[in-house]
Amino acid sequence: MSQLITIERHILEQQKNFPEATGELTDLLSDVAFAAKLVRREVVRAGLVDILGFAGSTNVQGEEVKKLDLFANDKIINAIGQHGRFAIMGSEENEGIIIPPKNETGSYALLFDPLDGSSNIDVNVSVGTIFSIYRIKSSNPCNASISDCLQKGSEQVAAGYVIYGSSVVMVYTTGNGVHGFTYDPTIGEFLLSHENITTPESGKYYSINEGSYAQFNDGTKRYLDYIKEEDPATGRPYSTRYIGSLVADFHRNLLTGGVFVYPPTTKHPSGKLRLMYEANPLAFICEQAGGRATDGHRRILEIDPSELHQRTPLYIGSMADVKVAEEFEQGIR
């Protein structure tokens, strides 16, 4: 790619596809990109901070130091909330809704997981931020309530994630394709690196925590047996790739093809991943890239949520691969 296209410029170009657009959503996405830069700054130096003794409950000055995921949560709320572009927010780290500290409010709701996979940060495994944006239903933004957050995933107007790894990549969609940007620290900008991402129809990887095998239902166990069988005609056996950081596993499979499965278990019969903060935004991205996302029986984006922290099983990735996993879950195979 000969041109250097920043994420701000790309978002503005995308806005032209929506003649009715006011520019508000464009500003919101730019705010999210800015917040990601703040989180990235702390993630890349987290190990150094630990070495210098700032990971405990207090530092050498006696000041309270928060865990990195809580730090990321605060940074995102403050960086985004101060502009008053969101009427309401919800975070995986907060039990209830968040009203941004601004009198003038926008007409959108933001739901986010500030640092997905944060338990892996101490061992230098990739972590990420996941976000989802909805237009509120309330006619007056000042009256926004939890019902404005509890919308089906199909109502999302934008979604994305940031993965903090060997490089920092932000991927987003506004319902017009999926685009990825890599952060260049020398100029402090996200530059277009993955335009119009299309996930393969099928892949060669499967991602699942097989340590929970004893808790899986019979369908999941038979699926795992199937995917490990030798059959060149169907590309089996698949190779297992499981990082344990949802954003990292999803990002790899999005680009290379494959399926991520987090099924129901005896310990978590309703699933473990959160519908609003993880499953919905990634499902929107996956479908826009030509993939598929279900709970094993229903399209993720059609699930009617009843609570902010609702959990769900998740089967997501390449279209053909997800369909096979579903057939085992449903007892068709």
UniProtKB/TrEMBL annotation:
It catalyses: beta-D-fructose 1,6-bisphosphate + H2O = beta-D-fructose 6-phosphate + phosphate. It comes from Pelodictyon luteolum. One of its GO terms (molecular function) is fructose 1,6-bisphosphate 1-phosphatase activity. This is Fructose-1,6-bisphosphatase class 1. Residues 5-195 form the Fructose-1-6-bisphosphatase class I N-terminal domain. GO terms for biological process: fructose 1,6-bisphosphate metabolic process; fructose 6-phosphate metabolic process; fructose metabolic process; gluconeogenesis; reductive pentose-phosphate cycle; sucrose biosynthetic process. Binds 2 magnesium ions per subunit. Residues 200-328 form the Fructose-1-6-bisphosphatase class 1 C-terminal domain. Pathway: Carbohydrate biosynthesis. It comes from the Bacteria. Its EC number is 3.1.3.11. PANTHER family: FRUCTOSE-1,6-BISPHOSPHATASE-RELATED (PTHR11556), SEDOHEPTULOSE-1,7-BISPHOSPHATASE, CHLOROPLASTIC (PTHR11556:SF35). Substrate binds at D116, G117, S118, S119, N209, Y242, K272. The lineage of its organism: Bacteria, Pseudomonadati, Chlorobiota, Chlorobiia, Chlorobiales. Mg(2+) 2 binds at D113, D116, E278. It is found in: Cytoplasm. Its cofactor is Mg(2+). Keywords: Calvin cycle, Carbohydrate metabolism, Cytoplasm, Hydrolase, Magnesium, Metal-binding. Mg(2+) 1 binds at E92, D113, L115. Homotetramer.
